[in-house]
Amino acid sequence: MALFRTIQKLTVPVRTSNSTNLMLLGRLVSSKAETFLSGTNANYLEAQYLNWSKSRGSVDPSWDGFYESVSGPTLKIEEFEDEFSPKTVSQNKSSQSEKDDKEAKERIKLHLAVQNLIRSYQARGHLLAKTDPLNLSIAAGWLLKNQKPAMEMKGVDSVVVAREIGTILCEEHMDTVFELPERTCIGGKETALTLREIIRRLEMVYCGPIGVEYMHLFDMDCLQFMREKMETPGCLERTIEEKKLIMRRLSKAVYLEKYFATKWPAEKRFGLEGGESMIVMLEEIVDSSTQLGVESIVMAMQHRGRLNMLVNVCRKQLTDIFAQFKPMEPKEPGSGDIKYHLGTFIHRFIRKTNKYLKVSMSCNPSHLEVVSPVVVGKARAEQHWKGDNQGDKVMAIIMHGDAAFSGQGVVYETLQLGNLPNFTTHGSIHIVCNNQIGYTTDPRFARSSPYCSDVAKCMDAPVLHVNGDDAEAVAHVAKVAIEFRCKFKKDVVLDLVCYRRFGHSEEDEPMFTQPFMYKKIRSMETVDKIYAKKILAEGFVTQADINKWEKEYNDTLNKHFELAKKVTKLSIMDWIDTPWTGFFESCDPKKVKETGICETSISTIAQHFCKAPEPWAFEVHKGIHKILEKRAKMVKDGIADWAMGEALAYGSLLRDKVHIRLTGEDVERGTMAHRHHVYHHQGVDGATHRVLDTLYADQSLYSLHNSSLCEFGILGFEVGYSYSSPNLLTIWEAQYGDFADTAQPVFDTFIVNGESKWVCQSGLVVQLPHGIDGAGPEHSSARPERYLQQADDDEDVIPDLDDKNMPLNQLRAANWIVCNVTTPANYFHLIRRQIALPFRKPLILMTPKVGLKHPYYTSPFKDFVLGTQFQRVIRETGPASKNPKDVKKLIFCSGKVAIIIDELRKEKKLQDKIALCRIEQLFPFPYDLILKEFCFYPSAKVAFCQEEHKNQGPWTFVRNRLENLFGKKVECISRPPSAASATGIKWIHAKELKELKEKIIAL
Question: Where is this region: Disordered (predicted)?
Answer without folding.
Answer: 82-102
